[in-house]
C-alpha cells in the first residue's frame, strides 16, 4: 500500500495500513508536491509531482522505493501537471493545465502526455483545446478517469470531456459550480461505461452544498443535479464495489450514495483530500480507513 504528499513524501505500508514507513526521497524532490501515485505491486510504483514547469515530474521505483529514477520532466516551462492515469499496464496518461504549444505563441492546448510502454517513454497525446481560462484541478489525482475503453476529464469550467480513442473528444456541461479559479469538476468516477459521478464545487466555500455533485447514466453525455447533494465541496469520489455505494470526500467531511448519486447522506466530518478505497488521505499526514457503512435507506436495495 502506498501514499504520497508534499515535500517529496512517499509512504509505504507492508501490513495493510497498520504501520507506515517513509520511503527514500526521489532525487531533487525534497520540495516537490506528489499529487499522483500509481502502484502496480509492492516494488513497482510511479509518482507524479504537480507544479509549474520543471516542478512537474514523474519518478519510478522498481525496488519498493529504496531508490528512484527520474523518468520525465514537464517540457512546458509554463505547464502544470495535475494527475496520472493508466488504462492498463502499458498505456498511461499524464494530464495537465493548458499551456502554449512549443514554438507557438498563438496556440494553447491541454498538457496531455501518453505512454505505450508502461511509462518508460512518453510523447504528446492528441491535442485537446481548452476554453478561455479553463484548467484542471490536481486536488486528488482523479480529475481524469477511465472505464472499459472510455476516458473522461473534468475541468474548472464544469465541463466533462470524454473520448474512446484519445483523438476525438466530446464535451458535456455539468451543473457543478464554476465561474472562478476555485470551482469546477474536481473528481470523476465511473462504475461502468454508463454510470458516473462528478464532484467538486468551490473549495473556498467548503460548506456550500449547491453545485457539488452531478450524476450521469448515459456515459457522460448528460448530467443531472442530485435531489439531495453532498454536504459541501468535495475533492474526490469513488465507487465501492463491495458495498455497491458511492463515497465522496472533502475538507468538511464525506458522504455516501446508494442510488447512483441521486441522493447523498452524511458519512463523517473528517478533513479529506483524496480516495483510494478503503483509504482516504488528508492534510498533515492524515490517513483513514473506511469503517462500517450506514444501512441502506428504505426502498434502496443492493
* Shape call: globular
Q: How far apart lie the N and C ends?
A: 29 Å
- Using DSSP, what is the number of strands? 25
Q: What pattern of helices and strands is seen along the backbone? A: EEEEEEEEEEEEEEEEEEEEEEEEE
Rg, rounded, reads: 18 Å
- Please describe the biggest sheet, giving its number of strands, its sense, and whether it closes into a barrel: 4 strands, antiparallel
Number of helices: 0
Largest beta sheet: strand ordering:
4-5-6-7
Structural class determined from secondary elements:
mainly beta
Which regions have little confidence, pLDDT < 50, spanning 5+ residues?
none
CATH fold-level assignment of the domain at 131-289: Methylamine Dehydrogenase, Chain H
Mean pLDDT: 92
**The CATH top-level class label of the domain at 131-289:** Mainly Beta
Q: What does this entry look like structurally?
A:
This protein has 302 residues and is mainly beta. It has a domain at 131-289: Methylamine Dehydrogenase, Chain H. Helices cover 0% and strands 40% of the residues. The chain has no helices and 25 strands. Strands 4-5-6-7 form a 4-stranded antiparallel β-sheet, with no helix packed on it. A 4-stranded antiparallel β-sheet has the order 8-9-10-11, with no helix packed on it. A hairpin with a 5-residue loop joins strand 16 (183-190) and strand 17 (196-202). The mean pLDDT is 92.
